[in-house]
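Good morning N.,

You mentioned wanting to compare the apo and holo forms, so I went ahead and generated the holo version with zinc ion. This is what I fed in:
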Amino acid sequence: MTEPKRVKLEEYLDDYAYTSESHIRKDGDTIWVPDVYCHNGHSLMVHGVLFDGKPAIHLRGEIGGAGGPRKDFYLSPIIGDDRKKGPELPDGTKVHMLCPICKEPLRELIPCTCRVGAHRYAIYLTPDPNELGAIGLCEVYGCPQSFVSDDGELVFERVVDED
Ligand SMILES: [Zn+2]
Ligand SMILES: [Zn+2]
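and this is what came out, ligand included:
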C-alpha cells in the first residue's frame, strides 16, 4: 500500500484579473482554462469528453517514453483536478506527450522534483507561446505536480507536501 500523496495548490497571484475573457477563468470555487494550445497554435480542447461540463484537454502520449505505443489522454481543464480519461497506467510510467494534431512532442520546460530526470512539458494558454501563458505538465504518470503561468507570472502551482 502506498500512502496517498498529499497535494496542495499554491496560489501566487491574489490579484489575478478573472474576467469572461481571461486565459484562466473562475466561476465560484471552480478555476479552469477555457482553451489551451500546442506550441504550433493547435487548440487541444475537445467537446467529446467533458469534466463538469467543460471541454477536456486532449493529448497523445507515447507510453514508456519517446517511441512507445501512442494512446489518447483527456485531462480535466479544472485547476487542481487530477481527473483524466485514457489508459490506466502504473504510477511512475513515463508518458512522452505529443500534440494530437501536429504530432510534435510538447516543449520541455523545467525539471520536476518527483523523480530524477523527470521534466515538465508545456501547453499554452494562447496560440502564441511567446505570450508566456503556459501549463507545465509532468511526464510521469500519476505525478500531480503542475503549474500555471500567465503573462510570464506564476499563478498556480500544485506541489506534493513532503512532510
Ligand atoms: Zn500541434
Ligand atoms: Zn513529476
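The chain has a mean pLDDT of 95.

Happy to go through it together on a call whenever suits you.

Best,
F.
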